[in-house]
Prior knowledge:
By secondary structure, this protein is an alpha/beta fold. It contains 31 helices and 27 strands.
Amino acid sequence: MKQYGQIKAKYPDAILLFRVGDFYETFGEDAIKTANILGIVLTNRNNGGSKIELAGFPHHSLDLYLPKLIRAGFRVAICDQLEKPSKEKKIVKRGVTELVTPGIAVDEKLLENHTNNFLASIYKDKELFGIAFLDISTGEFYLAEGNRSHIDKLLESFAPSEVIYSKEFKHEIHEWLGDEYYTYGIDEWAYTSEYTRKKLLDHFKTINLKGFGVEDALVGQIAAGAVIHYLESTQHHDSSHIYKIQRIREDHSVWLDRFTMRNLELLYSNHPTGIALLDVMDKCKSPMGSRLMKKWIAMPLTDKITIEKRLDAVTALREKEKVRIGVNEYLKCLGDFERLASRIASYKINPREVNQLKSALSSLPEIITLIKDLKSDLIEGIRDQINPCPDLVQRISEQLQEEAPAQVNKGNIIATGFNKELDDLRYIIENNQSILLEIQQKEAKNTGITNLKLGFNNVFGYYLEVTNKYKNQGLIPDNWIRKQTLTNSERYITSELKDIEDKILGAEDKILELEEKLYRDLVEHLQKYLETILSNANLIAQLDCLISFAEISLLNQYNRPEIEENLIIDIKEGRHPVIEHQLPAGENYIANDLYLNNDDQQIIMITGPNMSGKSAILRQTALICLMAQMGSYIPAKSASIGIVDKVFTRVGASDNLSKGESTFMVEMIEAANIINNLSSKSLILLDEIGRGTSTYDGISIAWAISEYLHENNIAKPKTLFATHYHELNQLEDMYPRIKNYHVSTREINDKIIFLRKLKPGGSEHSFGIHVAQMAGLPKEIINRAQAILGKMEENQLTGKESKNPKNLSSIKKASADNFQLQIFDLKDESAMRIKESLVQLDINSLSPIESLLKIKELKEMIDN
């Protein structure tokens, strides 16, 4: 327990799994937490007169229980026995061999195949933030710099499992991130510029960081260097697969703040049963492809040449169905050899995984052959850069058994013929009886002792037994050594017999030891190929994503967009990719045209009733632009997309009550973010802005924002503005680049039909009462609402102030009969009969007795 206490003191904030014999034990508070999370028995032990809680599980169950502890949000320190127990030593040497946290995990049971597991590191210098992301399971390492809004966007895109920071910023980080991410503070000195830069240079073995393009990113370097420090402090010293660091530049991808990422549901749906754009676009067959697809969706391109290269690749793949099918068949079987690289680097890769790597590399020449005739610069580049590593494949084939087990200590992992010593030992094990028989027969022939026997005992091993008859004849050779005398015989040993005995008795241990050594040599050899393996994984992931783009374009009838350097967005028959995907079979999505430019149709005011499709038109415009800039075909008949550099949205209600922010406060924060960051290439989507406050305040704010977007001297961003405020239709007459559109409807027999077509001109009605009727509100409420609406419209037409007490009184009085709730349910036949009976009744001609009889009759009608 003293030893436990010393180790636990070094890891006070982690659950310490303390190896004792065949069990991992936890004590005290750790035991209580562990028992609750894992559902195992909590017991106690007497520790020098005092009791201490105890909970443990067999060491071979670590893979089962460790993921549960990590997913529960705990850090886990694994303390192993560092030497074999012996009778001379009472306490074996122990030490923490690995500290596992939510952001640092390489075990496949802790990871999701199609999702990265990023560790993030944040550092702040005045108003500039640096951030780094590392997925230790794949070796991907990124850094970036920017303001807080940019860091928010990156956190949303990369969704790290853990965020580390300097303890000096603890209060600010907790206030900023709250419970959204698992956070952990480390000592301030680990975030100093000199220390972190040295960490990066030592890791990459370079004299500067110019080769990675991050030499001038000083704040980002501090965040990245702290990641390397954190790896070492958590006992992750084998990180050779992290061979480069990449810079994320704001101008290389479309700016999407976290509000926009969530509002457009790019990666995750805001509803439990909903689907995101990722779910529609990801048809990748490999885990590497699915992970890359998330990055492509989160960071659409802004470089026309790169976008066109992807589109050319998709076009080439669309035309070659056999190529797509053939490559997909190989992709399904490749496995995740990107993550295998991290297991190679940490020497944790097992023989079965090495064979899987061999199989993946062996498939690469077939993939190269399949894509060799495709006319695409991007695909040709992928083809030329793929390296199948034939020498490595040959080495693995020669060294490993085809059906090698997952665990090295199971034996039989090295192939026959690879090592002569191993083959000899295996021969001895498999043929020990025939070898011993040969010795017996040889000695019998040489000596003439015909009844020579060969036996074994635990005292001196194998022996030759000679009866007294032959012993007395002097047939015993001089090189035989007498070991035992019996009544009728003598037992001897020979040097040859002892050699064979040593080989036979020690063969199994020697085989295991030799196989482990040979396997370690193989894993050491694999280290030389880490960079090539990771490069292959990235190239295959790109090919997988491009094939996925081709597949969805054919499946969903997408078309190729025209990418332009101008400021025009011209979409013909555009559709919403996610809504369209969820439509019932046989139902078609109503497509719409949309045109925006900065010169004469910069802002479109879209009016129309609820449920008519205003929000869908806004979102589909942004999604079509983003899909085009990802290099994907789009859900439209055709489109000319002037490259967008930023997309902003103020869509839907996103209250943050837990932080004390109301709907209106969130609206204004998001609106301020838009106003403060807009550019001439921006696309802005505003949906019902100002609805979180009073009508007049809302109209005033919406009006002022519209004016600013039109008149400001910074930029003239393209804007779609969906609103219920019909007063905003007046802006078209006042400003040349504001145009009114409405989503058309048709009213038939007091019923509204949504046509979902965008047409020029504003709409004067919201049809909110019709929608309320469709939702199932009682007729009394609907009638009352119509009466109040009529009176309010009358007051508005006559110029009366609605706050005038007389006018409010007239509204209150309007249709008072309708406001009185019905006694009789119109759907109840019994109630209707009672009503008819009462209507026909002349109460002035009834006598008291007749009145009682009538009441009795009505009661019977109710009872029946």
